[in-house]
Recover the amino acids of this structure.
C-alpha cells in the first residue's frame, strides 16, 4: 500500500472514530462507526491480511452495526441535549492525548525495527503464499474448539434473552 493511501485510510479511521464519540445523534454515531470500520478494513488490506479485512467488513460493519441500530431503535434513544462546553475537561483530554503521542513517538524512536518496513507475510513465514482462511479454520476447530462452541451458545442465549426482554404486550 502506498504511504498516501495508508495516511488517507488512517486519517479516515481516526476522524470518524472521533465523530462516533462527538455526535449527539446515536444513529449518526453508529454510521460513523461503520465508516471507521471500513477504513480499518482498508488498512488490513494494505497489510495483505485479506481475510481479516473481509471479516472486519462482514462481522463488524455488517452484523454488529445492524445489532447496534436494532438496539438504538428498540430503546428509542433521542438526540442528546446540548450542554455547556467544559473547558477544563477538554484541556485535560487534549493534554493526555498530547502526552500519549509524545510517549509513543519516543518509544518508536528508540525501537530499531520501527525504521525498517515490515516484511510481507509470505517471506516472514518462508512460504510462497499464506492461506489465512485455512490457518484460521484449522486453529479454530482444533485448538480452540471448546471456546468457539461456548461463544456460540452464549450468543444464542443472549439472542433469546433479547427477544424475551423486548417482547411488548399488545394493547
Amino acid at each position: 500500500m502506498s504511504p498516501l493511501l495508508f495516511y488517507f485510510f488512517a486519517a479516515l479511521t481516526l476522524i470518524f472514530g472521533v465523530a462516533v464519540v462527538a455526535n449527539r445523534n446515536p444513529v449518526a454515531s453508529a454510521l460513523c462507526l461503520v465508516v471507521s470500520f471500513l477504513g480499518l478494513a482498508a488498512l488490513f488490506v494494505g497489510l495483505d491480511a485479506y481475510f481479516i479485512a473481509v471479516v472486519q467488513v462482514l462481522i463488524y460493519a455488517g452484523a454488529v452495526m445492524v445489532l447496534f441500530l436494532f438496539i438504538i431503535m428498540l430503546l428509542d434513544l433521542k438526540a442528546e441535549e446540548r450542554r455547556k462546553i467544559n473547558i477544563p475537561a477538554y484541556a485535560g483530554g487534549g493534554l493526555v492525548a498530547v502526552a500519549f503521542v509524545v510517549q509513543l513517538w519516543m518509544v518508536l524512536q528508540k525501537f530499531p525495527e520501527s525504521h525498517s518496513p515490515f516484511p510481507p507475510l509470505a517471506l516472514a513465514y518462508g512460504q510462497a503464499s499464506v492461506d489465512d482462511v485455512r490457518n484460521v479454520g484449522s486453529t479454530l476447530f482444533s485448538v480452540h474448539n471448546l471456546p468457539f462452541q461456548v461463544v456460540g451458545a452464549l450468543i444464542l442465549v443472549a439472542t433469546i434473552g433479547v427477544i424475551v426482554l423486548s417482547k411488548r404486550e399488545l394493547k
